[in-house]
Amino acid sequence: MAGGWTRDGAVLDQIEDTVLDGVLNARARLPNGEGTPDCVECGDEIPAARRTAMPGATTCVHCQSGRDSRIAHSTINRRGSKDSQLR
User: Fold this and answer.
1) Closest Cα partner for 40 from 55, 60, 56, 68?
2) Which domain of life is it from (predicted)?
């Protein structure tokens, strides 16, 4: 069912694009390359289990949690209604 000026399936396309953006954003933040045995921020040893799970890890869990809390998420307006643009 289309609404207004949109074609059938446009809402589903918007949802799929939003999910794809989220996945690509998360993949871009994954560590890659060589990891380090010690955290680059605090100098504490990175546990072997973390280095195994995240081969490119350069930060300990505590420091990475701090980094993750500072990530600015993009808020792309895909709805096109005035209501969503005013938020």
Assistant:
1) 60
2) Bacteria
Would you call 11 exposed, middle or buried from its count of C-beta atoms within 10 A (0-12, 13-18, 19+)? middle
Digitized pLDDT (tens) for each residue of the chain, 87 residues in all: 555 666 777 888 888 998 999 899 888 877 777 889 999 999 999 999 988 888 888 999 999 888 878 766 666 666 565 555 555
Domain residue spans in the chain? 30-69
Cα dist from 26 to 21, 31, 57, 79, 83, whole Å: 9, 10, 15, 22, 28
For the purposes of burial, counting CB atoms within 10 Å of the CB of 16, is it exposed (0-12), middle (13-18) or buried (19 or more)? exposed
pTM beyond cutoff 0.70 = no
